[in-house]
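Issue: ligand-bound run for iron/sulfur cluster - logging full I/O for the record.

Environment: standard queue, default settings, no custom constraints.

Inputs:
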Amino acid sequence: MTKQERLIDYKRRVLTCKDCSLWETRTNVVTGEGNIDSKLVLVGEGPGENEDLQGRPFVGRAGKLLEEILLENGLRREDVWITNIIRCRATLKEGGSVRNRPPRPQEVQMCKKWLEEELSIIKPKVIVCLGGPSAEVVIHKGFRMTEERGIWFKSQYAPFAIATYHPAYVLRQPGRAFDELRWMLSEDIAEARRKAESQDEEVAPEKTISLPPQEGGEQLNLF
Ligand code: SF4
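Outputs:
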Protein backbone atom coordinates (compact mmCIF):
# COMPACT_ATOMS: atom_id res chain seq x y z
CA MET A 1 0.00 0.00 0.00
CA THR A 2 1.14 3.56 -0.61
CA LYS A 3 1.40 6.05 2.25
CA GLN A 4 -1.88 7.62 1.12
CA GLU A 5 -3.66 4.28 1.09
CA ARG A 6 -2.32 3.39 4.52
CA LEU A 7 -3.48 6.73 5.86
CA ILE A 8 -6.97 6.31 4.41
CA ASP A 9 -7.20 2.83 5.90
CA TYR A 10 -5.95 4.14 9.27
CA LYS A 11 -8.51 6.97 9.28
CA ARG A 12 -11.36 4.63 8.37
CA ARG A 13 -10.57 2.54 11.48
CA VAL A 14 -9.67 5.27 13.97
CA LEU A 15 -12.79 7.35 13.28
CA THR A 16 -14.96 4.65 14.87
CA CYS A 17 -12.62 3.86 17.78
CA LYS A 18 -14.29 3.23 21.14
CA ASP A 19 -11.27 1.81 22.93
CA CYS A 20 -11.43 4.23 25.85
CA SER A 21 -14.31 6.09 27.44
CA LEU A 22 -13.48 9.38 25.70
CA TRP A 23 -15.56 8.29 22.70
CA GLU A 24 -18.70 8.87 24.79
CA THR A 25 -18.22 12.65 25.01
CA ARG A 26 -16.39 13.44 21.76
CA THR A 27 -17.87 15.25 18.78
CA ASN A 28 -15.11 14.15 16.41
CA VAL A 29 -12.05 11.94 16.44
CA VAL A 30 -9.09 14.24 15.72
CA THR A 31 -6.35 12.58 13.71
CA GLY A 32 -3.09 14.13 12.58
CA GLU A 33 -2.92 16.24 9.44
CA GLY A 34 -0.42 17.93 7.19
CA ASN A 35 2.32 16.83 4.83
CA ILE A 36 2.56 13.04 4.87
CA ASP A 37 6.11 13.26 3.50
CA SER A 38 7.31 15.72 6.13
CA LYS A 39 10.49 14.86 7.99
CA LEU A 40 9.20 16.98 10.86
CA VAL A 41 6.27 15.93 13.06
CA LEU A 42 4.80 17.90 15.96
CA VAL A 43 3.05 15.91 18.68
CA GLY A 44 0.78 17.71 21.13
CA GLU A 45 -1.38 16.47 23.98
CA GLY A 46 -4.96 16.18 22.75
CA PRO A 47 -7.90 17.98 21.17
CA GLY A 48 -9.55 20.92 22.95
CA GLU A 49 -13.00 22.33 22.38
CA ASN A 50 -12.37 23.82 18.92
CA GLU A 51 -10.46 20.77 17.74
CA ASP A 52 -13.26 18.49 18.94
CA LEU A 53 -15.85 20.58 17.09
CA GLN A 54 -13.86 20.87 13.85
CA GLY A 55 -12.20 17.45 13.89
CA ARG A 56 -8.76 18.99 13.26
CA PRO A 57 -5.70 19.35 15.52
CA PHE A 58 -4.46 22.73 16.78
CA VAL A 59 -7.19 25.00 15.43
CA GLY A 60 -7.94 26.97 18.62
CA ARG A 61 -5.88 29.76 20.22
CA ALA A 62 -2.94 27.46 20.83
CA GLY A 63 -3.07 26.41 17.19
CA LYS A 64 -3.00 30.04 16.07
CA LEU A 65 0.10 30.68 18.18
CA LEU A 66 1.73 27.55 16.81
CA GLU A 67 0.97 28.63 13.22
CA GLU A 68 2.45 32.07 13.95
CA ILE A 69 5.64 30.52 15.30
CA LEU A 70 5.91 28.07 12.42
CA LEU A 71 5.58 30.96 9.96
CA GLU A 72 8.29 32.93 11.77
CA ASN A 73 10.50 29.94 11.08
CA GLY A 74 9.58 29.67 7.41
CA LEU A 75 7.08 26.83 7.81
CA ARG A 76 3.36 26.68 7.08
CA ARG A 77 1.34 24.21 9.09
CA GLU A 78 0.69 22.23 5.90
CA ASP A 79 4.46 21.74 5.50
CA VAL A 80 4.66 19.57 8.62
CA TRP A 81 2.60 16.79 10.21
CA ILE A 82 0.70 17.83 13.34
CA THR A 83 -0.86 15.31 15.70
CA ASN A 84 -1.56 14.48 19.36
CA ILE A 85 -1.04 11.65 21.80
CA ILE A 86 -4.83 11.19 22.17
CA ARG A 87 -7.51 11.62 19.50
CA CYS A 88 -10.64 12.47 21.49
CA ARG A 89 -11.17 15.45 23.78
CA ALA A 90 -10.72 14.75 27.50
CA THR A 91 -13.19 16.80 29.54
CA LEU A 92 -14.28 17.48 33.08
CA LYS A 93 -17.76 18.66 34.07
CA GLU A 94 -17.65 21.45 36.65
CA GLY A 95 -21.01 22.80 37.70
CA GLY A 96 -22.78 23.59 34.46
CA SER A 97 -19.64 23.92 32.36
CA VAL A 98 -17.32 21.52 30.59
CA ARG A 99 -13.58 22.11 30.53
CA ASN A 100 -10.51 20.35 29.18
CA ARG A 101 -8.52 18.09 31.46
CA PRO A 102 -5.21 16.28 30.95
CA PRO A 103 -5.60 12.78 29.55
CA ARG A 104 -5.44 9.91 32.04
CA PRO A 105 -2.65 7.34 31.73
CA GLN A 106 -5.02 4.59 30.55
CA GLU A 107 -6.44 6.90 27.87
CA VAL A 108 -2.93 7.71 26.65
CA GLN A 109 -2.08 4.02 26.70
CA MET A 110 -5.17 3.03 24.72
CA CYS A 111 -4.57 5.72 22.11
CA LYS A 112 -0.86 5.00 21.73
CA LYS A 113 -1.42 2.40 19.03
CA TRP A 114 -3.07 5.07 16.84
CA LEU A 115 -0.19 7.51 17.37
CA GLU A 116 2.26 4.72 16.57
CA GLU A 117 0.38 3.83 13.42
CA GLU A 118 0.38 7.45 12.24
CA LEU A 119 4.08 7.78 12.94
CA SER A 120 4.83 4.49 11.19
CA ILE A 121 3.15 5.89 8.06
CA ILE A 122 4.76 9.34 8.14
CA LYS A 123 8.20 8.05 9.27
CA PRO A 124 9.50 11.36 10.63
CA LYS A 125 13.19 12.10 11.05
CA VAL A 126 12.49 14.69 13.74
CA ILE A 127 9.70 14.86 16.31
CA VAL A 128 8.91 17.94 18.37
CA CYS A 129 6.97 17.07 21.51
CA LEU A 130 4.72 19.93 22.54
CA GLY A 131 4.41 19.63 26.30
CA GLY A 132 5.46 17.11 28.93
CA PRO A 133 2.74 14.48 28.34
CA SER A 134 3.81 14.15 24.71
CA ALA A 135 7.48 13.90 25.72
CA GLU A 136 6.58 11.14 28.20
CA VAL A 137 5.18 9.07 25.34
CA VAL A 138 7.66 9.89 22.59
CA ILE A 139 10.91 10.35 24.56
CA HIS A 140 10.75 8.76 28.00
CA LYS A 141 8.60 8.38 31.07
CA GLY A 142 9.17 10.93 33.81
CA PHE A 143 10.34 13.57 31.33
CA ARG A 144 11.13 16.83 33.13
CA MET A 145 10.52 19.85 30.94
CA THR A 146 12.49 22.25 33.12
CA GLU A 147 15.62 20.10 32.83
CA GLU A 148 15.28 18.32 29.49
CA ARG A 149 13.63 20.87 27.20
CA GLY A 150 15.65 21.59 24.08
CA ILE A 151 17.84 18.48 24.39
CA TRP A 152 17.97 15.98 21.50
CA PHE A 153 16.97 12.40 22.24
CA LYS A 154 16.73 9.30 20.13
CA SER A 155 13.16 8.01 20.17
CA GLN A 156 11.68 4.71 19.09
CA TYR A 157 9.57 6.79 16.69
CA ALA A 158 12.26 8.96 15.07
CA PRO A 159 16.05 9.29 15.08
CA PHE A 160 15.74 12.71 16.70
CA ALA A 161 13.19 13.98 19.21
CA ILE A 162 13.10 17.18 21.21
CA ALA A 163 10.54 18.60 23.63
CA THR A 164 9.38 22.14 24.15
CA TYR A 165 6.52 24.03 25.78
CA HIS A 166 2.97 23.43 24.59
CA PRO A 167 1.58 26.63 23.00
CA ALA A 168 -1.47 26.46 25.33
CA TYR A 169 0.90 26.55 28.32
CA VAL A 170 2.76 29.50 26.80
CA LEU A 171 -0.56 31.34 26.36
CA ARG A 172 -1.36 30.91 30.05
CA GLN A 173 1.80 32.74 31.14
CA PRO A 174 1.48 36.36 32.28
CA GLY A 175 3.57 39.28 31.01
CA ARG A 176 7.27 38.66 30.56
CA ALA A 177 6.96 34.94 31.23
CA PHE A 178 4.81 34.71 28.11
CA ASP A 179 7.46 36.50 26.03
CA GLU A 180 10.21 34.31 27.40
CA LEU A 181 8.44 30.99 26.82
CA ARG A 182 7.18 32.06 23.42
CA TRP A 183 10.79 32.84 22.46
CA MET A 184 11.94 29.42 23.70
CA LEU A 185 9.18 27.65 21.79
CA SER A 186 10.19 29.49 18.62
CA GLU A 187 13.88 28.70 19.17
CA ASP A 188 13.09 25.01 19.60
CA ILE A 189 11.00 24.95 16.42
CA ALA A 190 13.86 26.69 14.58
CA GLU A 191 16.31 24.10 15.89
CA ALA A 192 13.99 21.26 14.86
CA ARG A 193 13.63 22.71 11.38
CA ARG A 194 17.42 22.91 11.01
CA LYS A 195 17.74 19.34 12.21
CA ALA A 196 15.06 18.09 9.79
CA GLU A 197 16.68 19.93 6.87
CA SER A 198 20.07 18.47 7.67
CA GLN A 199 18.74 14.90 7.57
CA ASP A 200 19.56 14.35 3.91
CA GLU A 201 23.23 14.66 4.76
CA GLU A 202 23.31 13.64 8.40
CA VAL A 203 23.54 10.00 9.39
CA ALA A 204 21.44 9.12 12.41
CA PRO A 205 23.47 8.16 15.49
CA GLU A 206 24.35 4.50 15.69
CA LYS A 207 23.92 4.29 19.41
CA THR A 208 21.10 2.03 20.48
CA ILE A 209 18.64 2.87 23.20
CA SER A 210 19.99 1.49 26.44
CA LEU A 211 16.66 1.48 28.26
CA PRO A 212 13.38 -0.06 27.13
CA PRO A 213 11.48 2.56 25.08
CA GLN A 214 8.69 2.81 27.63
CA GLU A 215 11.20 3.56 30.37
CA GLY A 216 13.58 5.99 28.79
CA GLY A 217 14.96 7.43 25.58
CA GLU A 218 18.63 8.06 25.13
CA GLN A 219 19.94 11.55 25.46
CA LEU A 220 22.26 12.53 22.65
CA ASN A 221 25.15 14.78 23.46
CA LEU A 222 26.20 15.28 19.88
CA PHE A 223 24.54 18.65 19.27
S1 SF4 B 1 -8.94 8.76 22.68
FE1 SF4 B 1 -8.00 7.28 21.25
S2 SF4 B 1 -8.34 5.26 22.20
FE2 SF4 B 1 -9.77 6.70 23.17
S3 SF4 B 1 -11.68 6.48 21.96
FE3 SF4 B 1 -10.49 8.22 21.11
S4 SF4 B 1 -9.30 7.32 19.41
FE4 SF4 B 1 -10.00 5.61 20.72
